Amino acid sequence: MPFRPDPSLPSPPPGGAALPLQGLTLMIVDDSRFTCDALRLILHRAGARLRRAESLEIARLHLNCYRPDLAIVDLGLPDGRGEDLIAELSADGFPVLGISGDPDGRDSALDAGAAGFLEKPIGSVAGLVRLIRQLTTGVGPVEKGAEVPSPTGDPVALRDDLARAASLITTPGDPGYARAFVQSLARASGDIALEDAVRTSHTAFDRARVAQMIDERLAALRSLA
């Protein structure tokens, strides 16, 4: 689904200079609202238009209607592997970036045809904008003064993702996907304790401990609108 409107979008830089990603349309394929919201703030402030898809199925429906200038595709999605979509898009000549909370996903993303790999959380905002600019326009580094500020995470988006994580971790389904989603969310939000707990969860007792930690974080965010 499209991102919600962002009322904080900046005015064009003084002197008529364009924003570094002005006029580009990007597609984000990621099931984490928290990650997508961070990317939305970065890329909107750089001038790009965005569309979001939460799964491979929705991404392919989007692609029947329009073609983005670049796609950012998460590797772990609820209905399959992002590498499949990366391979499809790169075969059609579209630049694609893989993204994952698991740094070991770099090789599989690049092998599938990704032009680059982003590790959650995004380390360098300027580097991301520069990379997208180079891949889509062939233009070199962003001009001095056109840097984009690094956003803080949206606590409402984090709350929504934690609620989904709580459901995934306690209901039958794909345990590998549930574990990867929670670990990726913990890494993206800088929650080292939760990330370590998920990484070392091997028993039912461990999973119950992870569920309790998620509930504690949800309780702290429950007052948010």
Brief rundown of the structure:
It contains nine helices and seven strands, in the order E-H-E-H-E-E-E-H-E-H-E-H-H-H-H-H. It is α/β, with parallel strands linked by helices and 225 residues long. The chain has two domains: 14-137, Response regulator (Rossmann fold, 3-Layer(aba) Sandwich); 155-221, no CATH class.
List the topology elements.
Layout: E1 25-29, H1 33-45, E2 49-53, H2 56-63, E3 70-74, E4 76-77, E5 80-81, H3 82-91, E6 96-100, H4 105-112, E7 116-119, H5 125-137, H6 155-170, H7 175-188, H8 192-199, H9 204-221
Parallel strand pairs: 1-2, 1-3, 3-6, 6-7
Antiparallel strand pairs: 4-5
Helix pairs in contact: 1-6, 6-7, 6-9, 7-8
Written account of the structure:
It is a single chain. With 225 residues, the chain is an alpha/beta fold. The protein has two domains: 14-137, Rossmann fold (3-Layer(aba) Sandwich); 155-221, no CATH class. 48% of the residues lie in helices and 12% in strands. It is built from nine helices and seven strands, in the order βαβαβββαβαβααααα. The chain has helices at 33-45, 56-63, 82-91, 105-112, 125-137, 155-170, 175-188, 192-199, 204-221; strands at residues 25-29, 49-53, 70-74, 76-77, 80-81, 96-100, 116-119. The strands form two sheets. Strands 2-1-3-6-7 form a five-stranded parallel sheet, sandwiched between helices. A two-stranded antiparallel sheet has the order 4-5. A hairpin with a 2-residue loop joins strand 4 and strand 5. Helix 1 runs antiparallel to helix 6 and helix 7 packs antiparallel against helix 8. The radius of gyration is 18 Å and the shape is globular. Mean pLDDT is 85; it is low at 1-16 and 141-150.
